[in-house]
Amino acid sequence: MEKIEEIKKNFLSEIKKAKSLKELDLIFNEYLGKGGKISVFFKKLKDLPIEKRKILGKKLNFLKEFFEKEIEKKKKIFFQKKEKEIFDITLPPKKIERGHLHPLTQTKRKVEEIFTSFGFEVVEGPEIEDEWHNFDALNMPPWHPARDVLSLGKTFYLKEKGYLLRSHTSAVQIRYLETHNPPFKIIVPGRVFRAESTDASHEIDFWQLEGLMVQKETSLANFKAVIEEFFKRFFEKQIKVRLRPSYFPFVEPGVEVDISCPICQMKGCSVCKQSGFIEVAGAGMVHPFVFKAVKLNPREWQGFAFGFGLTRLAMIKYKISDIRYFNSGDLRFLKQF
Ligand SMILES: [Zn+2]
Question: Rounded to two decimals, what is the model's pTM?
Answer without folding.
Answer: 0.70
